[in-house]
């Protein structure tokens, strides 16, 4: 579990418990204070539960495999299946299963699945396992309908399999740099401004008809400010 997931889960639990407490006490102040207290306790609790290790993170693992290509991902697959033999660029383990490395930046498509199916039929094998970054809906539907049992493993599944067998590399093998503030701001510049504008307008209009006017006006102001920030960031990118 990533730190962002831990924080998000903590906030969710804290808001839920704080809302219940605010309802029964009829005090928003008590509710807000309890949310802050529950959030702090939850974060500390989840951090203590989380096991510490020196394994490479899942995001860095995915980035490494995509950037370094099939030579790197083949190494990991061979660690999972040490008894494989190679033929025609596909890897086949001894129990009649075709192990296919389709890890790439783009999604697994129907043609990719069809190629593995034809190869499996040609070689007379009885099962297909495909490793990929992610698969589109049509590819998954096709894999379910094949007369040969076909399993599609996304990158997170490969990561968990390697982690279970304790054959992941350590954190120092990460290729890409960590995301910084500049990277986050650059990504924010590509968010369509209309989303912030529509959110600001709708929440501002709702403030006329709902009891908690101040909260909707605050949300409208936040969305408006974010829209202005994104506007200037996008102008800077295009300059």
Structural class: alpha/beta
Sheet with most strands: 5 strands, mixed
Count of alpha and pi helical runs: 10
Note the run of SSEs as H and E: HHHHEEEHEHEHHHH
Helical content class: 55-70%
Radius of gyration: 25 Å
How would you write the strand order of the largest sheet?
1-2-3-4-5
Total E-strand runs: 5
This entry's quaternary arrangement is: single chain
Question: What's the end-to-end separation, in Å?
Answer: 39 Å
Principal-axis shape equals: elongated
Kindly report the average pLDDT value.
79
* Uncertain residue ranges: none
Strand content: 5-15%
Quick description:
With 239 residues, the chain is α/β, with parallel strands linked by helices.
How would you characterize this protein structure?
The protein has 239 residues and is an alpha/beta fold. The chain contains 10 helices and 5 strands. Helix 1 runs antiparallel to helix 2, helix 3 crosses helix 4 and helix 9 runs antiparallel to helix 10. The longest helix is centred in the last third of the chain and has 26 residues. The model has no long low-confidence stretch (mean pLDDT 79).
């Amino acid at each position: 579990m990533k730190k962002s997931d831990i924080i998000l889960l903590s906030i969710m639990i804290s808001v839920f418990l704080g809302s219940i407490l605010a309802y029964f006490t009829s005090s928003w102040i008590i509710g807000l204070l309890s949310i802050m207290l529950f959030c702090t306790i939850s974060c500390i609790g989840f951090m203590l539960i989380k096991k510490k290790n020196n394994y490479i993170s899942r995001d860095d693992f995915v980035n490494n495999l995509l950037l370094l290509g099939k030579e790197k991902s083949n190494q990991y697959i061979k660690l999972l299946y040490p008894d494989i033999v190679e033929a025609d660029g596909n890897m086949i383990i001894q129990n009649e299963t075709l192990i296919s490395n389709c890890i790439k930046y783009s999604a697994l498509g129907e043609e990719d699945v069809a190629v593995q199916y034809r190869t499996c039929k040609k070689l007379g094998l009885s099962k297909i396992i495909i490793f990929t970054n992610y698969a589109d809906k049509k590819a998954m539907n096709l894999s379910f309908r094949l007369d040969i049992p076909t399993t599609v493993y996304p990158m997170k599944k490969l990561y968990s399999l390697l982690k279970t067998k304790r054959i992941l590399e350590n954190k120092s093998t990460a290729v890409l740099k960590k995301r910084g503030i500049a990277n986050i701001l650059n990504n924010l510049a590509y968010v369509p401004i209309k989303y912030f504008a529509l959110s600001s307008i709708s929440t501002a209009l709702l403030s006329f008809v709902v009891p908690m006017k101040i909260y909707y006006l605050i949300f409208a102001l936040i969305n408006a400010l974010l829209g202005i920030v994104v506007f200037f960031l996008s102008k800077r990118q295009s300059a």
